[in-house]
Design brief:
Pfam family, one: zf-dskA_traR
CATH superfamily: DksA, coiled-coil domain
CATH topology: Four Helix Bundle (Hemerythrin (Met), subunit A)
Number of domains: 1
Protein name: TraR/DksA C4-type zinc finger protein
Domain Zinc finger DksA/TraR C4-type: 97-129
Shape: elongated
Helix content: 55-70%
Structural class: mainly alpha
Number of strands: 0
Strand content: under 5%
Radius of gyration: 21 Å
Number of helices: 4
Oligomer: single chain
Bound molecules: zinc ion
Keywords: Metal-binding, Zinc, Zinc-finger
InterPro entries: DnaK_N, Znf_C4-type_bac, Znf_DskA_TraR, Znf_DskA_TraR_CS
Largest sheet: none
CATH class: Mainly Alpha
């Protein structure tokens, strides 16, 4: 069963490896969900501060205004939402047995690449062509 020779890509071969990636993705999902909750809370706080007339938006001209903070937070929120979608898709691929397979060419994605980016859906070659 040892065929590590040559320079070909080493994809996921064992159920243990797959489980390891599932754990990794579950941890990432937990973390993303926490950040999402945190950002949502922050946005609610900003929204409340804005609707509360006692906060003067122009008070500190050098500091970030409420609207700046608002857009920063919503931008982060969108990033985390995207990340969460990617992580959930990756987990679904683990369940249906297509995890670690390039969506474009059907080749195995290298374990090294998946370790760096567990949500990767393309092999390194296809990813290079896309960008
Ligand atoms: Zn590919």
């Amino acid at each position: 069963m040892h065929d590590d020779g040559g320079g070909h890509v080493t994809g996921i071969r064992s159920a243990e490896q797959l489980e390891r990636f599932r754990e990794l993705l579950l941890a990432e999902r937990r973390e993303a969900e926490e950040r999402l909750a945190e950002q949502s809370e922050g946005i609610t706080a900003v929204r409340e501060a804005r609707s509360d007339g006692s906060v003067d938006d122009e008070h500190d001209p050098d500091g970030p205004t409420m609207s700046q903070e608002w857009s920063q937070r919503t931008a982060v929120l969108h990033d985390v939402e995207h990340e969460l979608v990617d992580v959930k898709r990756a987990l679904a691929r683990i369940d249906d047995g297509t995890y670690g397979v390039c969506e474009k060419c059907g080749q195995k994605i290298s374990v090294a690449r998946l370790e760096a980016r567990p949500t990767a859906t393309l092999c390194i070659d296809c990813a290079r062509k896309v960008r």
